[in-house]
Amino acid sequence: MRDIVHKLPRIGNFGIGIKLTIVLAAFGVLASGLTGYYSYNATRGILVKEVGHDLLLSTQVLGRRFTVAAGEIANDALYMARVPGARSVLTAPAALQSRFKNELAEQFRTMLSVHPEYFQVRLISASRNGIELVRVDRDGTHLQRVEGLDLQEKAHYPYVFESLKLAEGQVHYSRIFINHEAGAHAGLNKPTLQVATPVVGTGGKALGVIVINVDLDRLFELLKKDLSSDFLLYLTNQQGDFLIHPDHAKAFGFEQGRRFLVQDEFKAVTPMVETGADSAMIRTHADSPGREVIGSFVHIPFGKASGRMFVILGLTVPLEKVLEGTETVGQNTAQIVIGFSLLAILLSILVARAFLSPLAQLVAAVRRFSETHELGSLPTRRNDELGLLARSFSQMQEHILAHLDEINQHRNAMEHKATHDDLTGAPNRAMFLDLLQLAIAGARRSGDQLALLFVDLDHFKQVNDTYGHAAGDAALVEVAARLRQTVRENDIVGRLSGDEFVVLIQRVENDGQVGIVAQKIIDAMQVPVDYQGHALGIGVSIGISLFPRDGESVEELLVNADAAMYHSKRNGRNMFNFYS
Q1: Angle, to 10 degrees, between the axis of helix 94-114 and the axis of helix 84-91?
Q2: CA atoms of 441 and 430, how far apart (whole Å)
Q3: Please, where are the H alpha helices in 145-239?
Q4: DSSP H helical segments within 199-325, as ranges?
Q5: What number of H helices and E strands is found in the chain?
Q6: Which residues are identified as catalytic?
Q7: Of 3.40.50.300, 3.30.450.20, 3.30.2090.10, 3.40.50.2300, which CATH number belongs to 22-349?
Q8: If both were cysteines, with which of 376, 413, 458, 543 could 365 make a disulfide (CB 3.0 to 4.6 Å apart)?
Q9: Domain 429-578 top-level CATH class
Q10: Angle between helix 469-486 and 511-524 (nearest 10)
Q11: Is the separation of the CB atoms in 459 and 479 below 8 Å?
């Protein structure tokens, strides 16, 4: 090398060969450093963007779960208001009331045992200043029935006198508050939502109120159990006051004369409070100085169809947690930069010009990968150091793609969990209603008929009471499987809630065709379900509504099919009826 340099022309004190070598070596080191820095920062940007999308999806899924949970609480309250025992307690002679109260209390106990987020269920009379007639509280790990002089008068509470104004089937949602009500046991000083509905007599007059008290802390623990523990949960009311905050001192501050507002802590959420925007993404410093977080907030209406009641739900995660996966990428990038720099210094002496072409190829491949996530052409077949560098870049790209694939798989799993029933795998209520809406739109364009079958299990409660909820779950799974086997492949079987299923039959020609399908379903359920040597007898009552004859909207078809199903139950069960 010294001989070669000596043969080159000399300019000043240094030969042009040395200067060219220094320039090329400096260029190689600078290029490798910039390439490594660009690649590392592009990787961080990709991960932050993908996690941001995943976080928004997780927040929307959690919000949908909250909406569904609020609806299920309302359904539980409506169910309790309709059981014969509730009305019997309010109307039966005094000599018989004790037996009816005991039976209703046992039903309350069952509901509390199934729903750990409920901490109190009550039947309150419309008379005698709103005296509690039947009340079961959660007290630690025990369920306690409150009786005698411990029962209180509640007529002055909004959840009583507001609910008494409602018609049968309507539900009152309270504002979310800290429960200071005496005798609340497990719910004392907890963020609480009260759901109430009237118990209506034969004349249409409200005789009393069923009230379910829900512990929101426990409810959200159940709703976010699938989320990472690094996710921090926020919940605010319509004005932006925190109801749930990682720092408990900031929750319900307005009850102590202080206000902690989400729009003060996260400026990007301000339009959601002031103008009702649907969602907001944030990236800001929070919780402690210098700790950057990213997160998403969504607008969640609940309680009233008008949407006037809503909460703002948010999830945040520290940016350092998001970027933990880039540490290995950073180390690999640093090693590549160091190796590439040494290689550039060594090779620039003899192969400076030959080096520029593959370097440009590497830079182009990295830039293309950062913009399109596509693997570019790299000189990986070379057997020299440049080939080793290209293979290292290729390994780094594959590592990033694998990480992105893992994020996408997690997102797909969250989407499936949000739209399908965990027990039976059938589309859940929200998903089925979306599919029904699409089918109606298609049928309206094509002029086809649709049939909606509302399938309710007969005597399902006896299975749960006799053999336990595990047997009931096994029966529900078998019922869903038989329904799918009975209908055509393009028909849809969904589970609304509890023991209620729905079947959408598309391209219906006449009532007789639908009647044949309904009878096949009834016949399929005649075979008892085998559970641990026990034969579980499950029958079904079916109600049928047709589009467009019986309704042109999702709500009309569902309500009319439900009405037809109740007609089947009243006429002996294990049969089907068309809506008339």
Answers
A1: 150
A2: 17
A3: 158-161, 216-223
A4: 216-223, 262-265, 270-274, 319-322
A5: 16, 21
A6: 499
A7: 3.30.450.20
A8: 376
A9: alpha beta
A10: 140
A11: no
The amino acid sitting at 356 is L
Where are the strands (E) in 90-205, listed by range? 118-125, 132-139, 142-146, 172-173, 177-178, 191-200
Q: What is the pTM of this model?
A: 0.49
Q: Say how far apart CA 118 and CA 138 lie, in whole Å.
A: 8
Where b means 16+ CB within 10 Å and e means fewer, 407-433 reads: beeebeebeeebbbbeebebbbbbbbb
pLDDT, block means (10 residues), the chain with 580 residues: 44 54 70 70 73 81 83 91 89 86 92 91 93 91 90 91 92 82 63 91 90 87 74 86 84 78 88 86 64 85 61 85 67 71 68 56 67 67 71 72 68 66 87 92 92 92 88 90 92 90 93 92 91 88 94 93 93 90
Which residue type sits at 70? A
Residues of the chain with CATH 3.30.70.270: 429-578
Determine the residue type at 521: I
Query: Residue 546 — φ and ψ, nearest 5°?
Result: -115, 140
Give start-end residues of each CATH 3.30.450.20 domain in the chain: 22-349
Contact predicate 238/218, CB 8 Å: no
Separation of alpha carbons 549 and 545, rounded Å: 8
Produce one character per residue of 159-168: b if its CB has 16 or more CB atoms within 10 Å, e if not: bbeebbebee
